């Protein structure tokens, strides 16, 4: 991974970057940050060392992390107790603290810098170019790395020239649908209207995706600059950032960034002396997934129930408050300053023929290294899972990568080598989506996963149109019966028909995509559905109603792992004896199943 | 209550699109939306009470009864689900003796589930007030609840 975002203050020898994204912060990163400042003072190094807190580096699994520049020494799993040693050993004596370095699972060697880590190597960071390297609460940090340069360049061009450049770059909306951003802008630009609006969609509702949060927390100014560019191009003078209420830190950092930019004259009246006025307000979502859908989002901004409207009219013609409106996702907007700064050709040189640039994925689930990754479009799934993610833990086998969350589907092992871009992912029955990628292994039940997503979409269905309101409920009922072993074999086909109807008949994206997880899991894991129905068996042993909670004597190695984790002492075990489960005491919590490495509990 | 409401209203303009931010501020002060506050908010935004109730009940964020001193949120997002978030929720429910959405009789805890807090890399996760706890295990629940009693 290359980065141009490193700037060490003049007069300082070294820079310590302490990640304080939500992940690291939950593991005492704040104490580490202040501990470092203290320890440096005591060691007499405070004058020559800069300590900076940053947004997410991406490797949340190994947090909290510290990076030392120049050089890029990468310390992970740091605790506040380690701070003293880092300062004394690395900074004073020049000896790296071996035990805090990243352990490469393949070579079993410690790796000194992030440049050499296979988590970072295949990555190409455009959206996350500054995340983890600049202080998100300091506008000067953003300016030092070239921030607010692109918008000034845009002011020397006509809005249509900006739109053409964006079209030429080939960037497509990163919110999920993948529509050409430049074309979308052109519609809004050409729409007649005295007042136009721009909306930044930061209502990241897909459970399993957190890239928008990371960008807003780690580099909010890049989003504001992207909004300025978009606003200038389409002729919008008023803008909203619609951010989820569940992201308090992102909300706070956006507010800080808007204030700083307004104080500098980068937002407000006559931006950069260009004569262009641009005002950004922040609206906090109130907890409704459907508000990620653009027409529902606009209803919510207007103070109404967040229900979608039929399109056309499209928002570009009649949007928020009845005015022409353009809505872009956070990740799309974060790309724009880089595109306008370095040019469309540069951007178009990254990625595949039809999918340009990079995509940020949130890697989570059954994977060794979860976190935030940005890869060029077209990178094979295998590279993401095996190299960047470090493979599947506990020697289990990869089963599927679920992309697109509740609107997407599963990419099974047989497509492990597909290059990840819009077309390929759609072809195998999933969607690129906003970038959630939840990895599953043999211990994940795909029927249960489909049921999980349906539970979510059914609950979040706004109830406006019948196919979505009743269809999702009906599908969920069937899925629930399957996981309880109460369904008949015909119901798989009926479920497929119903799913197609809901897809075809629903008003908005929520209902149109809600059946995707069901269709995709039936397509690839029909055998699992059949096992539940015909044999009353859950192969992954997740569906509690179908588990016998009996120890398989042939497979049991008498190790006692199950007995140690049982919260109700229902497992009867003595050394050198096969375990037994007392079903009277068993509460079916599955702790024993998760603890058993030999799949010995049926 | 009137004084507090007036203070909230003074920071907003009297238009319909100010309604949700006003309701959010009211909940920020009172912890929930008292019926009379919703009616007052409607009057301020030139809206009928029925419309205000319609909007408020649409959004999961708004609560209509007082909440406990500490808010416990157990994440049930995809990554947390796959990593055993359901088990964590069960444990919290058992220990507090309330279902998700409930408040303990002593008013110390309110328990809620959330679809995703965006801490997927730390799954399963739970949040108590403003503290996020990652890689949760059922065994850690007691310790975390006690640490956040706030008394």
Keywords:
heterodimer, A: 602 residues, alpha/beta, Glutaredoxin, Rossmann fold, Ubiquitin-like (UB roll), 5 domains, 5-stranded mixed beta sheet, 4-stranded mixed beta sheet, 17 strands, B: 151 residues, alpha+beta, Arc Repressor Mutant, subunit A, 42% helix, elongated
Shape of chain A: globular
Radius of gyration of chain B, Cα only, in angstroms? Answer: 18 Å
Helix content of chain B: 40-55%
Architecture of the largest domain in chain A, CATH level 2? 3-Layer(aba) Sandwich
What's the level 1 CATH class of the largest domain in chain B?
Answer: Alpha Beta
Strand content of chain A is 5-15%
Uncertain spans of chain B: none
Cα Rg of chain A: 26 Å
Major sheet strand order of chain A:
12-11-15-13-14
CATH topology of the largest domain in chain B: Glutaredoxin
Q: How many distinct domains of chain B? A: 2
Total strands of chain B = 4
The topology string of helices and strands of chain B comes to HHHHEHHEEEH
Mean pLDDT of chain A: 93
User: What's the helix count of chain A?
Assistant: 22
CATH homologous superfamily label of the largest domain in chain B: Glutaredoxin
- Give the low-pLDDT segments of chain A: none
> What sort of overall outline of chain B do the alpha carbons produce when their principal axes are compared?
elongated
Structural class of chain B: alpha+beta
CATH class division of the largest domain in chain A: Alpha Beta
